[in-house]
Amino acid sequence: MGLKLEEIKSLIKEALPDAEISIHDLAGDDNHYSATIKSKIFSGKSKIEQHKLVYKALKGKMGNDLHALALNTMER
Amino acid sequence: MDENLKKKINDELEKNEVCLFMKGTPATPQCGFSLAVSNVLKHLEVNFKGINVLEDDELREGIKKFSDWPTIPQLYIKGEFIGGCDIVKEMFEKGDLQKKLQEKQISFQKKS
User: Fold this and answer.
1) Chain B contacts of A66, Cβ < 8 Å?
2) Cα–Cα distance between A67 and B33 in angstroms, integer?
3) Contact A48 B81 (CB under 8 A)
4) pTM for the whole thing?
5) Which residues of B72-105 are buried (b: 16+ CB within 10 A; e: fewer)?
6) Which of A64, B3, B48, B66 has its CA 20 to 30 A from that of A30?
7) Which B positions 48-77 lie with beta carbon below 8 A of chain A?
């Protein structure tokens, strides 16, 4: 279980190439993170849609390999 | 997804205007994120039904497919999926959750 910070970052980058990403490992266990993500791709989308884009980028790992990723998404 | 399960979820959403699918119960949440959303609703004195997904594995996976959302908790108001912990907290802080409750004619305690 768990996912490395760099792995999360690169998965998000792959799906949202313009994203500015800042991730913090909250518990030091590779399983609880918080991330702030800024991307042009979020513009005009609801928060639900924005978070879904990030979850899609993680290719099903969210909620399975990765327990917690607090998200703060915003338009660039 | 399984039609029976879908029906079960839809029934809950019809019966309960404000529905929180969570880990644990509102009295004893089993996860910090479920606790946070439950606390927001309690703070606003919203009457809500907490549904403990830990008691039902099928539901725990099913609700994720239902909303196409991979995590729990999940808040629904009058059948509309509102979001998970991050979105609900942010909406509460900005006053958007209160607006949403008002729009949906759900009674709550206005607090600053």
Assistant:
1) none
2) 11
3) yes
4) 0.92
5) bbbbbbbeebbbbbbbbbbbbeeeebbebbeeee
6) B66
7) 64, 68-72
pLDDT in tens, B66-103: 999 999 999 999 999 999 999 999 999 999 999 999 99
In chain A, the residue whose alpha carbon lies closest to the alpha carbon of B32 is A68
Closest CA to B68 of A17, A63, A71: A63
Tens-place pLDDT, residues A12-37: 999 999 999 999 999 999 999 999 99
Q: Does the domain spanning A5-75 belong to CATH 3.30.300.90?
A: yes
pLDDT, tens digit, 9 for 90 and up, residues B15-69? 999 999 999 999 999 999 999 999 999 999 999 999 999 999 999 999 999 999 9
Domain boundaries, chain B: 3-103
